[in-house]
Design a protein that fits this description.
The protein has helices at about 80-95, 140-150, 195-205, 235, 255-265, 280-285, 315-330, 350-365, 400-410, 420, 445, 480-485, 490-495, 505-515, 515-520, and strands at about 15, 45, 55-65, 70-75, 100, 110-115, 125, 130-135, 170-175, 180-190, 215, 220, 225, 270-275, 335-340, 370-375, 385-390, 410-415, 465-470. The protein is an alpha/beta fold. Strand 10, helix 3 and strand 11 form a beta-alpha-beta unit. Helix 3 packs parallel to helix 5 and helix 7 (about 315-330) packs across helix 8 (about 350-365). The structure holds ligand TNX. Ligand TNX binds near residues 390 and 424.
């Protein structure tokens, strides 16, 4: 790894609410605000420290908004869900009633409105002395804006029990929109199984950083995690273990539907993955007919890759895939089905191409968009497919060839280069969890790269977005998930959200530092990287 000169930690900037109100730019729908001097507040209000950095943020020096026992949330039509979600957070920690009202003036209120104009996740947030205005063209944009407002309030706002406050947010004018539409994270529930509750907890962590795609790696050599009617052994047997021989587990259709619902409430799309033709030992062990020789291998609890393959020439393989993908398609409202396709070292190239031809037809027939690891670029892929780049290669190096081939065919890339975006890589040689085959990935390594220039011949228009995968060979608990995810998931989330020219490591590390106390209140463990000037108290 290149050595980097240590930098002197800087403390987060602090604004005091004692200066005169700055002149405010007009926000559509908001009344003009006179530049009157503020009463001197008795406490300092932290400067805005938002992750991902908004596309545009203007701090209003000397201005702050304080939640009080009388604060209301004013929801205009279409803003109910964001309002209810925000009220849930504010009520728990402040103990204030925070009623939601649909009528009345905005003074003293947090006003949420759908502007009707503009789609996507863009939003405007204006924090003034006597009111907060949040507007967006979509409910999803309001939800993203609520995450920003959360981060403007003190970390204790995340508390599940009542805290004393004060509850002030610094005055800001924010206009924000994401760089990429796909800002994902993947959780491997195959190597180790995680319960619905654990997945939902992870969704909550990711939602705070405006992550909008949840990729679930539902099958691999070590476990099959989703119930499929008519194929009970996939879960009763194929789901019965995990890496290291643990008890495994699986989701019923109800469980899966609950995860989809919970994610959708946070405007997050679930992308289910059934890996193949490799990474299929759990399925091969469950049904002998899926093996070319008709013999089921034993269950596998090690961590090797590349040894299993579905039988390409047998019709039952495609009946099986049709059943599984058809069922998943039915329970997945999002447009994507991820078919894996990585590391098929036990499948001949011609067989791999045939597998892709057949599975592409199945995915299309079930009305979904083909999504796979970028290895699929070695075969024929349809225009509009999504290829997920994972290798730790750059420029035109070997390893980028399949991704470039996918782009030439009209696919778009989701960028997950393992040496930057893999959440299972160790931070340092002494990190107790994780792997190091792609190198050590400190927070700065996770942050300092550009998905639009990493691969020769691939530019922003070919990139659907970014995703941070958490493979779980060494990950078994909520604590492990947190420790590997924080602080790197926020780094990848910022790459996906913030314009490339609007972000820098020196600024990011200060904003990241401000997240530490928030994670502490949320009960999230994190890796206290020495690259980040965490507050000491
Ligand atoms: C490679 S990257 C894999 C996974 C492993 C991971 C461990 C990719 C598409 N496949 O099967 O879990 O490395 O880091």
């Amino acid at each position: 790894m290149p050595s980097r000169a240590p930098r002197r930690p800087r403390l987060p900037r602090v604004l005091t609410a004692s200066a005169a109100t700055a002149a405010l730019a007009a926000v559509p729908g908001a009344p003009a605000v006179a530049a009157v001097p503020l009463p001197t507040a008795g406490h300092a209000v932290a400067a805005p420290q938002v992750v991902p950095a908004p596309a545009s943020l203007r701090a209003l020096s000397g201005v702050s908004f304080s939640l009080t026992r009388r604060t209301r949330i004013l929801v205009r039509p279409g803003a109910d869900r964001a309002g209810t979600y925000l009220a849930g957070i504010l009520r728990r920690s402040t103990g204030y009633p925070v009623p939601i009202s649909r009528t009345g003036g905005a003074t003293g209120a947090i006003a949420l409105s759908l502007t009707g104009g503009g789609g996507g996740e863009a939003y405007r947030l204006s924090v003034r002395r006597d009111s907060v205005w949040l507007s967006s063209g979509t409910p999803a944009g309001l939800f993203r804006g609520v995450q920003t407002l959360r981060q403007l309030l003190p970390p204790a706002i995340e508390s599940a029990t009542v805290r004393p406050g004060p509850w002030s947010a610094p005055g800001v004018e924010i206009e924000d929109a994401p760089r990429f539409a796909w800002r994902g994270t993947m959780l491997d529930v195959a190597r180790h199984f995680f319960t619905v509750r654990q997945v939902e907890r992870y969704i909550d962590t990711a939602a705070l950083y405006k992550v909008n795609m949840l990729h679930l790696h539902l099958s691999d050599d070590q476990g099959w995690r989703i119930a499929i009617p008519g194929r009970p052994r996939l879960t009763s047997y194929g789901g019965s273990t995990a890496v290291g021989g643990g008890p495994g587990g699986f989701y019923t259709e109800r469980d899966f539907t609950e995860i989809v619902r919970y994610a959708a409430e946070r405007y997050m799309t679930v992308v289910p993955e059934i890996d193949g033709p490799g990474h299929t030992n759990a399925a091969l062990a469950s049904y002998a007919e899926l093996n070319c020789d008709g013999h089921a291998p034993p269950l596998y609890t090690g961590t090797d890759v590349g040894f299993s393959s579905l039988c390409i020439g047998k019709p039952v393989t495609y009946e099986f895939l049709d059943d599984v993908l058809g069922r998943l398609a039915k329970f997945t409202p999002g447009p994507y089905l991820h078919i894996g396709g990585d590391e098929a070292m036990s499948t001949k190239p011609a067989d791999y191409a045939e597998y892709l031809r057949r599975i592409e037809e199945i995915v299309r027939r079930h009305g979904k968009t083909l999504t796979g690891w970028a290895d699929i670029g070695a075969a024929t892929v349809p225009r509009g497919a999504i290829a997920q780049y994972w290798q730790p290669a750059k420029g035109s190096e070997e390893g980028t060839a399949t991704a470039r081939a996918a782009v030439r065919q009209g696919a778009r890339l989701v960028m997950s280069p393992a040496d930057h975006a893999y959440l299972d890589m160790k931070y340092t040689a002494s990190t107790p969890l994780g792997q190091d085959w792609a190198g050590l990935v400190e927070v700065r390594d996770a942050y300092e790269w550009d998905p639009g220039t990493l691969i020769d011949g691939v530019s922003d228009k070919d990139v659907a977005g970014v995703e941070a995968p958490l493979w779980t060979e060494t990950i078994v608990s909520d604590h492990d998930i947190d420790y590997m995810t924080l602080p790197r998931l926020p780094a990848i989330a910022e790459i996906g959200w913030t314009p490339q020219n609007g972000r820098s490591w020196n600024d990011f590390r200060l904003r990241l530092a401000a997240q530490g106390p928030r994670w502490a209140v949320l009960g999230r463990a994190y890796y206290p990287s020495p690259q980040v000037p965490w507050p000491t108290s």
